[in-house]
Amino acid sequence: MERRKLRGIIITLVVVLVVGGAIVFALMPSPLPVEAARVSRGPLQITIDQEGETRVRDRFVLSSPVVGRLMRVEFYDGDPIRKDQIAARIDPAPLNQREREEVYARVEAAGAALRQATAREAHAREDREQAHRDRERAERLAKEGVISEQALEQARNADVTAGNELSAAQYGVQVAASEEKVARAGLVSVDSDPSKPRPLIELRSPIAGRVLRVVEKSERVVPMGTPILIIGEPGQIEIVADVLSTDAVKIQPGATVLLDGWGGDHPLRARVRLVEPYGFTKVSALGVEEQRVNVISDFVDSPGPLGDGYRVEAHIVIWTSQNVLKAPLSAVFRRGQGWSTFVITAGRARTRNVEIGHRNESEVEILSGVAEGQQVILHPSNQLAEGTRVRTN
């Protein structure tokens, strides 16, 4: 009898425990669904991203040196043009005293500009020769293991940049010489006898290239200084992107630039040649005034079909590493003065304080706090707390 009572008590206790456990389990909150990713090692690249455009590096604007009647221009946009080929003709009008003085001043200014351009060319030539010597010296020292590969790369880049600057200075001399020739052509209106027919002023191309744009096509009377044609070499293209001045201070000449959004199926490489030393004010789409700086880059890869004024997306690399501990940026959040993240341990969320380094729009460098391979929770919500049961989607 007693054995039967004991058996009944045991069965009752078992039933109570089972039912109680089922009730507790039913009342327990279900695991919170979360997105997760693993902390890993790999490359990390920090860029400054900005929309830019291509432009012909050296463009030449042929303008009327005098008041006169422009003869119809026979060129069209995109036409090839030879050096010293006649691009336009102008029948000069008689000048009054004020206009005569302007012509003389224009000739003097053009002569001074030519002398200045010649001096800049000489300076650029000396810089180019010095950069070439520095490169040769760096290559010898690199072979001996005295300097690093980075120092050698900087010397090579300085040599290439100096060569480009010399080419630009040489083009500048051509431009100045052409402008002086055009300015002196204006003396025809000053020196000619008003009673005799005046010879036509001929505007000639300073380079062999293409007509980028015909500004004035039809015959008409044009004031002094009116642009008629714009000429350039489409193969000599650079990229200009205006960035915030706070970003410009982080960019160094020689930095790698990756270009996409230009219409091709692969990014193009370029290299920063110049961060302009002056800024300008630009009003953003939101109506906010910003101080911006132009960053000029040269193509490393062939620009292919890109022409003057084409849109590109420029990603200027300011820091890169091939082996860093990193996590998705959406996994870290501010807590007080530091940063934290949630890691998943035994099905529960655990808070970890982390120290971060470089970061871009999608990833962040982890200096301490979590280890490689640990799962971190992405986009942690307000429902998440220390010890919350979680399950990954």
Q: Would you summarize the structure shown here?
A:
The protein has 393 residues and is an alpha+beta fold. It has five helices and 22 strands.
Characterization of the model:
With 393 residues, the protein is of the alpha+beta class. It has three domains: 83 residues, conserved putative lor/sdh protein from methanococcus maripaludis s2 fold (Beta Barrel); 95 residues, Beta Barrel (Elongation Factor Tu (Ef-tu), domain 3); 126 residues. Helices cover 30% and strands 38% of the residues. The protein is built from five helices and 22 strands. The strands form four sheets. The chain has a six-stranded antiparallel beta barrel with strand order 2-11-15-13-12-16. A four-stranded antiparallel beta sheet has the order 3-10-8-5. Helix 2 packs antiparallel against helix 3.
Write the layout of secondary structure elements.
Blueprint: H1 2-27, E1 32-38, E2 40-56, E3 59-63, E4 68-70, E5 80-81, E6 86-92, H2 97-143, H3 149-185, H4 187-191, E7 201-204, E8 209-214, E9 220-222, E10 227-232, E11 237-244, H5 245-248, E12 256-260, E13 268-275, E14 280-283, E15 289-299, E16 311-328, E17 332-335, E18 338-345, E19 348-359, E20 363-368, E21 375-378, E22 390-392
Parallel strand pairs: 1-22
Antiparallel strand pairs: 1-21, 2-11, 2-16, 3-10, 4-6, 4-9, 5-8, 6-7, 8-10, 11-15, 12-13, 12-16, 13-15, 14-15, 16-20, 17-18, 18-19, 19-20
